[in-house]
Amino acid sequence: MVNNHSIHIYTDGSSKGNPGPGGYATFIEKIGTYYRKIISEGFRYTTNNRMELLAVIIGLEKISKKKQNIVVFTDSKYIINTIQNNWIDKWKKNNFYKKKNVDLWIRFLDIFSQHFISFQWIKSHGLNYINDYCDRLSIQASKNKKLKIDHVYEKQNIQNFISS
Fold first, then answer.
1. Is 75 considered catalytic here?
2. Phi, psi at residue 142, to the nearest 5°?
3. According to the model, what pLDDT value does residue 159 have?
4. pLDDT tier, 147 (very low <50, low <70, confident <90, very high otherwise)
5. Is 132 known to be catalytic?
6. Residue 59 known to be catalytic
7. Cα first-last separation, the chain
8. One-character DSSP codes across 43-79
9. Among the listed residues 29, 55, 30, the one whose alpha carbon sits nearest the alpha carbon of residue 40
């Protein structure tokens, strides 16, 4: 049975240098209740697209009850286009051949199938104060003194550097 209460997840990611230090922020709210959860983390070497996608994944992973109605608000055309144009299905069929962020897209697909999710694009730095808040949090997270390591991304880039 589907829960009629929607959950809204607002996300944003950032990277200074792209690649460079980056961060993400996720703001989760359950409509009709006072439940809100805010999560942000920073990474020492990553990309903007990885942080945008990780913000969505983390938000979805925090919803423990399955089969929820969820609306994800993002300013990432990378995510919106991949989902709404069904690129993700083509990528999966082709085993993600020559695609970036495969580790995160596989993680996304696993959690995506557990809920009823729609995506809503919102203009960055626009009139949505929650998105603007997530933007500020993601930038702040990327400036923390102790940043996490995006092991998959760093390993791939070291291998690419060595082989070139």
1. yes
2. -70, -15
3. 59
4. very high
5. no
6. no
7. 53
8. EEEE-HHHHHHHHHHHHHHT--SSS-EEEEEE--HHH
9. 55
At residue 1, the pLDDT reads: 41
pLDDT value of residue 124: 82
Q: Which of 59, 75, 115, 150 is catalytic?
A: 75
Q: What 3-state DSSP class applies to 18?
A: coil
Query: Which of 13, 22, 42, 59 does the annotation list as catalytic?
Result: 13
pLDDT in tens, 21-68: 999 999 999 998 889 999 999 999 999 999 999 999 999 999 999 999
What is the token pair recorded at 123? 């203009």
Q: Which of 22, 23, 42, 52 is catalytic?
A: 52
Phi and psi at 160, nearest 5°, equal -65, -40
Give strand ranges (E) for 61-153.
69-74, 116-121
Residue 67 contacts residue 2 (beta carbons within 8 Å): yes
Active site residue 41: no
